[in-house]
Amino acid sequence: MSPIKFNFENKNVVITGGAQGIGFEVAKHFLQAGATVTVADFSPAALEITSRELGHFKTLKAVTLDVTNRKSCTDLADGIPGNLHILVNNAGITRDKSLVKMSDDEFDQVIATNLTGVYNVTKTLLSKFDPQAPKRIINMASIVALYGNFGQTNYVAAKAGVIGMTKTWARELGKKGFTSNAIAPGFIATKMTQAMPKEVLEGLAAKVPVGRLGATSDIAAACLFLASDSASYINGAVLSVDGGLVM
Ligand code: NDP
Q: Does the active-site annotation cover 147?
């Protein structure tokens, strides 16, 4: 099946955690659709690979960012070329342990990156959005925020918080030309899920009604749709992209 064709020429996109996994694929899709894309990521090695693999797109900019560091977010804002139209808050980490075994540091790290990081970036970039054009905030949540998950107190708390912020921004910013939506991916094949044992992943795939784990392109397609003009009346939604795992 050929993908839906979107046109994001003259649109300025920022993707956090955009140098690997889902974020990388989202960046590639936006670039292919003509957007100017700033990939902002923690990992210099991954940014280097991104610049090499996507460098033929002249509208790519790859910059270092630590979403937990507000000065780093300000530097990101200062470096954005022109007005911003689309922000994809995608950076995230896992530090999985059962509640009994989880250290305070593991809890704090995940909250700092996956929840406070989304606040830091959005708050800092808010004034960079184009006052004259439609504006999009897309936050990467997770289906585990909808039903809880063994070993993920920190991660589930952060992602549930992201959904709460998404809905709050949908209310606060809707009349200012923004939509704010979240995507709740199911289990997607990236390095984040590669950290899980093979048997667990096979067991998960078997439980998905469509019979497979998700691909990064499944999430990128949803992201481009939510960013498009076709989605201008979708606001405050949590779009599950999980093959029907959570219904
Ligand atoms: P990856 O680990 O493949 O990529 C995440 C990227 O974010 C990495 O390049 C990582 O850099 C970067 N990053 C981590 N911390 C920071 C930081 N403080 N500031 C800036 N960038 C940072 O993850 P995925 O592609 O799998 O996940 C992307 C998003 O989707 C995450 O929010 C995740 O929670 C969510 N998600 C993923 C699912 C999955 O099955 N894969 C399912 C549901 C949700 P580094 O490698 O240096 O840490």
A: no
Find all residues with CB under 8 Å of 181, minimum gap 6, and list them: 136, 137, 138, 139, 166, 170, 226, 231, 234, 235, 236, 237, 238, 239
The pLDDT tens digits along the chain (247 residues) read 566 789 999 999 999 999 999 999 999 999 999 999 999 999 999 999 999 999 999 999 999 999 999 999 999 999 998 999 999 999 999 999 999 999 999 999 999 999 999 999 999 999 999 999 999 999 999 999 999 999 999 999 999 999 999 999 999 999 999 999 999 999 999 988 888 888 988 998 999 999 999 999 999 999 999 999 999 999 999 999 999 999 9
Calculate how far, in angstroms, residue 113's C-alpha sits from the geometric centre of ligand 1.
10
Q: Which residue, by CA, sits nearest to atom 8 of ligand 1?
A: 17
CATH code, residues 12-241: 3.40.50.720
Whole-prediction pTM value? 0.97
List, chain by chain if needed, residues with CB within 6 Å of any ligand 1 atom: 16-17, 19-23, 41-43, 46, 65-68, 90-93, 113, 117, 140, 142, 185, 187-188, 190-193
The residue extents of the domains of the chain are 12-241
* DSSP track, 109-139: HHHIIIIIHHHHHHHHHGGGB-TTS-EEEEE
